[in-house]
Automatic annotation (TrEMBL):
Residues 16-72 form the 4Fe-4S Mo/W bis-MGD-type domain. Keywords: 4Fe-4S, Iron, Iron-sulfur, Metal-binding, Oxidoreductase. It comes from the Bacteria. It holds the Pfam family Molybdop_Fe4S4. One of its GO terms (molecular function) is molybdopterin cofactor binding. This is Formate dehydrogenase. It comes from Aliishimia ponticola. Its main location: other. GO terms for cellular component: cell envelope. Its cofactor is [4Fe-4S] cluster. The keyword Lipid metabolism does not apply. Belongs to the prokaryotic molybdopterin-containing oxidoreductase family.
Amino acid sequence: MARAQPTLDLSPKVSDEVRKTTCYMCACRCGLNVHMKDGKVAYIEGNRDHPVNKGVLCAKGSAGIMQHNAPSRLRAPLKRVGPRGSGEFEEITWDEALSIATDWLGPLREKQPEKLAFFTGRDQSQSFTSYWAQNFGTPNYAAHGGFCSVNMATAGIYTMGGAFWEFGQPDWDHTKLFMIFGVAEDHDSNPIKIGIGKLKSRGGRVIAVNPIRTGYNAVADDWVGITPGTDGLFILSMIHVLLKSGKIDLDYLARFTNAPVLVNANTDSGDHGMLMRDQAGKELVIDRRTGKPAPFDRKGVQPDLSAQWRHGGYTHKTVMNLMVEKYLDPQYAPEAVAEQCGIPAERIRAIASELAKTAFDQSFEIAQPWTDFRGERHETMRGRPVSFHAMRGISAHANGFQTCRALHLLQILLGTVEVPGGFRFKPPYPKPATAHPKPHSGVTPNAPLDGPHLGFVQGPEDLALKPDGTAVRIDKAFSWENPLSAHGLMHMVISNAHAGDPYKIDTLMMYMANMSWNSSMNTSGVIEMLTDTDVTGDYIIPRIIYSDAYSSEMVAYADLVLPDTTYLERFDCISLLDRPISEADAAADAIRWPVVEPDRDVRGFQSVLCELGARLNLPGFVNADGSAKYSDYADYMVNHERKPGIGPLAGYRLGPNGLTSGRGGVNDGQIDNYIANGGFFVEHVPDDAQYYKPWNTSYQKWAVDMGFYDSPQPYLFSLYAEPLRKFQRAAEGVGPHQPPEHLRARLKQVMDPLPIWYPADDRGQDGYPITALTQRPMAMYHSWGSQNAWLRQLHGVNPLYVPTKLMQQHGLADGDWARVTSPHGEITVPVMEMAALNENTVWTWNAIGKRKGAWALDDDAPEATKGFLLNHLIHELLPPKGDGLRWANSDPITGQAAWFDLRVQIEKVDAPQQSQPQFAPLKSPVPQAPETLAWKIGK
C-alpha cells in the first residue's frame, strides 16, 4: 500500500500586496516588486514592466530585504561624548541634532561659507545636494566621482557630448561585436547581462580588455589580459593600424566631427593651434564645392577632410591632417607597443582588423528617413555594428583622461557612435561640454554661491582661483593642478583640510562616504587626520557631521550623526537633472517611496537637508515670509522648479490640456502618478530621432520639447579638444592667465588636444614591479553590500589573487600568506592562484575587509579577520619630490584618484592569526548582530 503523503500547500501566499519602487543596491536602479505581508517586506523580485531591468534582478537586488533589515542600521541621531574615534555617543532627539547643526553652520554662512566642506558619496540625489550647498554659499561641494570615474565622464563629454554607463549604451539589437575595456561586474550589471545575452543569441562576439578575467570578461569570446595602465597605448596602436590601412569612416568624420575643421598654424598668433572660426564663432571647414572656407553648419557645405588653406603666409591644416601625422608615427606601430602592453603585435593587428571588418564589411542600413542639421535629407540610417563599453579600469589611472579620449577617438574613426549597431546616447544626452554650466566659486557671506559648483571648464579663464592664483576650493578642483576636474576631488578633502592647503575648514559634512575606510586612499593616514589635534588640543578638523543608514567605520569619527533610512523607507528622485535611468530609445526617470515606514528614529537625509535649509534661512528653502518652503524631500520633488516648467521629475507634469511630459507645471498628484505606474516614467524618442541624435533635427526638436535644452544644439564631435589647447597655450606663456612655473612642463605635456598616452610611472615606485588592483564583485556594491547576510555568503573573505608565474616565483600555494609592500605601507594577506590574470598583476575584491566593531559584525567575522583592503597601500599624495610641494596621486587633467597605478612587492610569510594591519575594534553605537539572523513574515 502507498504510504500516506502529507498535504502540502504548493502555492503558498507570497504577499498581501505588491508595492513597486526602485532598487538602491547598486547604481543600476532597477525596478522592484516589493511583496508585503502583514505590513512588512516579505520578498523582492524584479518588475517586468521596468525599462532598465525588464524583470531581471541580480543577487544584490534580491538581497535588498536583508539590507532593509540589517542589524547595523542606526537607530537615532547621535552626539559624540568621547574622543573622536572612540565610538562613544549618546542618542539625542532630531530637534537637538538639527539645533546643533544649525548652531555650527549658521555662523559660517554669515561670515565664511567656504569653511563648510560638504561632500557626498555614491548617493543618487546630487542635483539636490549641490543645490543645497549652492544656496548655503560654500564652493566646497562635490560627490564621489573624483575617486570613481570622472575621467570617463569628462573625456566623453569633452569629446562627443556623452560617455559610457549612465550617458549611453550599445545598440544591443543590432551590434555584432562588443568590445569592453576595464569593466568590472558592479556597474550596469543587469542591462549588460541582458545585452550580452541578446548579442550572443545572434552569434555576436565579445572582446574583453582587462588584466583580470572575471564576470563579463569571463564570458567574452576573446580576453586580452593587458598590462594595467597601457590601454591608451593599445588603443592608439589600433588607430595607427586602421589609419594605415584606410579603414576609417571618412564620410562620418567629414559630416559629424571636427576632423575637417582648420587649425590655426600661425605661430606668431595668440590663436596658434586653435580651431579657426568665422566672425560668428562657427568652426571653419574647406567646402569641397568651392575650395574656400565655410562655417561647418552652412546648408549644403561638403567639408574636405584633407584640405589645406594657405592664408596670411601660413598653411593651415585640418584636424584630420594633424591626426594622420600624429598617429602614423612609428611609435604607435604594434611592434613598438607590444611589449609594454603585454599584447603580441599580431594580436593588436588582428583585433583592429576584426573591428574594421565588422564595422565596414557587415555594414547595413535601416529604411528610416531623417534630416540632418545642414538641412540634408537622408533616406536611410547606415549601421556600423561595433560597440564599445568601458569603466573604472581604464579611468582610475594618472593617464586615464587621455586614455578614455583615445577610446572615443577609436569609436568615432569607425563611425560607430549614434548609428545603428553602435554606441547610442541616453536622453538627456548628448550634450556638448559647452552646453553644460561652467564651475562657479564666487563666495559672498550670507548669500548663495554665484552659480553651480561643478561644470566644464573651457579655458584658463574658467578656473576657480583667488586673485593670488591659489585654489578657491578645498579640494583644489578647477585649479592649475586639476583644470578639468568636473566632479571635484573627494579623496583630497580630508588631506587638504588637515594640511591647511589651501586653507583650513571648520566643518566637514559628509553623506554616504566611508572615508575612514574603503572610500579613501591612505586609510590609516586619514584616520590619523580625522583624530589629530593642534597644540591647544582642538581637532584640526574642528567639526564633522556625517549621515549614513548604517554603523559604518566612518560613524565613529563623526561629532554629529544624522541617521538615514534604508532605501525602502525613503523618498528619492532618480532625475533627468542628475542620474537618470533612460535607455537610448527613451527618456526615463523614477522615484523611490516609503513602501514601509521606519521602525527607528531615522529620517531620509534629503528631507533633513530641507529642514536644515529652512532653519538656516537658505534661499531656495524658505518662502518670502521665512517659513519652510518644503516640508520634506517628496515636497521638493514635486514643487521645486529649476527653471519654469522644469523640475526634478519629468513625468506627469501639468500642461494646458492635462498631463504632459518634460516641460510643464507642478502637479500635486505627481508622486501618486509615479506610484501607480510602477515608480517610473518613460517617454519614447520618435522613430526618426532614434539615431544621429547630435545632428538629427527631429531629435533636437524633441529634446527642446522635453526641456533638455532651450533651443536646438547640434554640434561636432571634438576629436581635437580646443579647451586642452588653451591650457597648453597658457603653459607656453600666451594669455593673461598664467600657470605657476612648476606646472608649465606638465601642462604642455598632458593637455594635448589630440589623445595621447604617457606612462604613469613617476611615482617613486622603482623596485615595486607588480601592479595591484581592486575590483568590485557583481554581488557587492561599495561597502554596504558586504554587511548583507545573504551576500556575505558569496564574498565573506577576499584573498589576494596572484598569477601562476608569481605564485611559482615566490613559492606560494593556495591558502598561504604573503606580505604585500608598496612605497607607502604593507599588508599581510591570504593568497590564491589565478591563471586568468595578467602575469604581473595581483588583485582582490574591493571593500570586503571590515574593521572590527563596524557594521554590527562579530569581531571574529571573516571580513574582519581575513578580509582586507588594498587601500592601506595607497597614498593620496605622491612621494615627495624635494620641492616642498604636495603632489596629488591623481590624473593631472581631471584630478581623478589614480587608484590603479599602485605598484607593490610580494613575499611569502608565515601565516599570522589575522590579516594585517589590524586596528583597535570600534565601539559601535548599535548592538552586535545576533549569531543567527532569522525572522518570519506573516503566518
